[in-house]
Fold these 2 entries.
Entry 1:
Amino acid sequence: MSTTLKQLPEGYKIRPMEPTDYSVLKILEVLTTVGSIGEEQFSLQVEEWKLNDRIYNPLVVTNNNDDVVACGMLFVEFKLIHELGKVGHIEDIAVRSDQQGLQLGKHLILALTEIARSKGCYKVILDCDEKNVGFYQKCGYSVAGVEMSIRFDK
Ligand code: ACO
């Protein structure tokens, strides 16, 4: 990858999300509404992802106290086009507010992107706010296409 990357701060690590990483839910609140999810419900969801790990690839960043300080997901879509091609989708990237600006988001995106490459995806796509375009460009991504949606939750 052509983007430059400083080292993670000392003692910080990236690893797959585990069913015990309940604090992820607090971190996701910097991104959007999480709502009420119990510890057991959280664990079951992560276990379900682990059973389907060809598709779901959730990662976390931990700090030097082993606290989870950032999280993100890559899921792999299995397609018919491009001779049964695979597309990676990056979703739900969140860095704890007091840990932003330490390159954690960038490390996370590059790690998720590398998983997509190693699993044979021909591209990775994501949706983001205009205000985060510069961040994703620093991670090697380019603006491509237009996001559209229809919502059933309002
Ligand atoms: N606009 C422009 N550049 C940015 C921005 C931004 N909004 N945010 C960071 N950067 C730059 C940094 O200055 C840095 O530049 P450098 O490499 O030249 O030093 C580079 O991008 C990497 O920044 P990080 O320190 O890795 O950014 P951070 O760890 O703070 O993570 C993130 C960025 C994920 C946007 C974080 O601020 C966050 O969690 N925000 C709230 C939730 C959110 O908006 N998540 C993204 C949703 S989109 C999705 O999930 C697909």
Entry 2:
Amino acid sequence: MKPDSMSLDPALVLALNEATSRLERGEVVGLPTETVYGLAGRLDRPAALEKIFRVKERPFFDPLIVHVDSIEGAKTLVKDWGPLPQALAEGFWPGPLTLVLAKNDKVPDLVTSGLDSVGVRCPDHSIALELIRRAGPLAAPSANRFGRTSPTSWRHVQTEFGDQVFVIPADESRIGIESSVLKLDGDRLSMLRPGMITTRMIEQSLHEKGLSFQWVESVKASEAPGQMKHHYMPSIPLIWVESDLSPLQIRELLNQRRSELPIEVEGVALQSAPKGQSYVHGAELLLPREASLAARGLYAELRRLGESGADHLFFRFQLEMQGEEWGAILERLTKAASLKLS
Ligand code: TXA
Ligand code: MG
């Protein structure tokens, strides 16, 4: 797990050093991970934690995930580390699984939005792990403005925040969508956000270790504050299509039904065609058949199409998009869509 810093590109070594000293000074940095890029600050720097919310324009009621470099690191943040988190961390860390557990006093209330639980995750990325080793646990949400598409390359982060944020210019995120968020309360599990670690994989891993557990339905809104909102929205309307309408028919229906498009969703403004004008140029979001490839390219493609000169996007749901991995992708697209045509 430990990267050999000497084998890193010299530019990345310099960027790591720069990021370490900025974090030390209480600044925030753009952090590469295998899921999406994060906007990271040290847990012991309140100014950095505040800056994360300010720069992202994120409401204070939406808690941050804390990134650790090991199981030992996670144990320092939670009340009890029982057999279930141990088994899941052994099975899936480093990797795209966030465990929500009862927190201890080391975790500032700002990070958890006053909740008594904290989300912890050990990212599967050598640069992220090295930075955590140097700087300690890092609080980091995805490095996008609130309600917008998560970044999967360092350039996305730069486009989003410009000079406000120093980003480590590492590789593109390999997974491409955010981690699965699993809440644990004793032996009761609930999946707060689906991701590439699926409920099936979790069940199998726990069964293999002979551990018992039960699934409980995803909880009150106050326990899952991030799940209520329409995240992931591109800058122009995305239309979810379930039939074989032609691009022209999609455009006509969109123009007929444009009054149904939200102007704003939960405080996030959406762009629409200027008053009196029609939508004229649609672009189709095409995804590979294989779920892991579709996830990897999803956000970059949404951004690219959003900047391509099109004034609306459409995505055709296909019956082959089955299984839990597709479920995680479709969950993002459902939230990103402004209108459904069937
Ligand atoms: O893959 C990821 O998880 C990325 C990378 C950077 O690690 N991070 C990420 O963070 O997606 P963010 O803040 O964009 O999404 C975290 C989600 C939010 O929906 C938040 O509400 C939820 O996790 N969350 C965090 N702590 C929680 C807690 N204590 N209880 C319930 N939900 C929590
Ligand atoms: Mg996010």
